[in-house]
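Hey,

Quick one before I head out. I ran the complex with zinc ion overnight. Inputs first:
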Amino acid sequence: MNAMVLKKLGTALESTELADRQPGPGEIRVKVAACGVCRTDLHVVDGELPAPQVPIIPGHEIVGRIDMIGAGVEGLCVGERVGIPWLGHTCGVCPYCMGGRENLCDRPIFTGYTRDGGFATATIADARFAFPLGEAGSDVALAPLLCAGLIGWRSLVIAGEGKRLGLYGFGAAAHIVAQVAKWQGRSVFAFTRPGDVATQAFARRLNAIWAGGSDEMPPQPLDAAIIFATVGDLVPKALKAVRKGGRVVCAGVHMSDIPSFPYRLLWEERQIVSVANLTRQDGIDFLRLAPEIGIVTETTSYPLHQANQALADLRAGRFEGAAVLVP
Ligand SMILES: [Zn+2]
Ligand SMILES: [Zn+2]
């Protein structure tokens, strides 16, 4: 197999030939057909997550076909198309796993962070954490659903039922959430980097009823806001934009420091919450709804060996929607 490997934190991935791996008990081997590039991959490469480990193969928005099955795997077959998400394994016995919150597991394994991921021609996954994807939709179009879609979905659920929804940072996750929110009958207000008129136009094309800079106030107070950008400065800004009792959801795995702000921005029962990871139930719920909603992802494809270019373009905001690597 060939993989783009992070050998040292903060350096470029290196194209590397590796011996083919065999799936262990409970595992599947998947021939990768497409793997999305997520903001979290940048945090992995930059060493911004706790307990970084190298060498590691990043990538946790994997679409591929099973080509080998380990002992004891049930309900999956060779040739079947599956998606492999960020949540790669949970312990099953900690209080969070037992309480239906496996996204907070005490001993989790994350794809592309603490186990090798999908920036490769093949990968090994815990079969219980792979989602059957069926045959509808192209591999590239589906890949961004595996993280941007899933985390976006969980964030949207946690944002509550409010009709007026603000999205700060209009990248891969927001462009999917905007479509779900529209389908649910909500109004989307999109906030981008100030002056980023191209992304604002992209948001309007996806039916945002208003799009502007993150330094602007929306024309009406929001019921809830989701912050996908990794910028802590946005937290007080979003608090200012939500109504009394409104909720601000921080969806990123990493964020720059939140500046201090006057208590009156939080007063009147406004809330700040974060979203961490996903549960398998999130995946089942979202992937079942996605075809019904008719989500269309905007993707830019790169050959696998151009993973560094894809990461650089994501960092610089050089494309709308999501980047996807194709082996
Ligand atoms: Zn991700
Ligand atoms: Zn656990």
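The pocket of zinc ion (ligand 2) is lined by residues 90-91, 94, 96-97, 105-107 (CB under 6 Å).

Talk tomorrow,
K.
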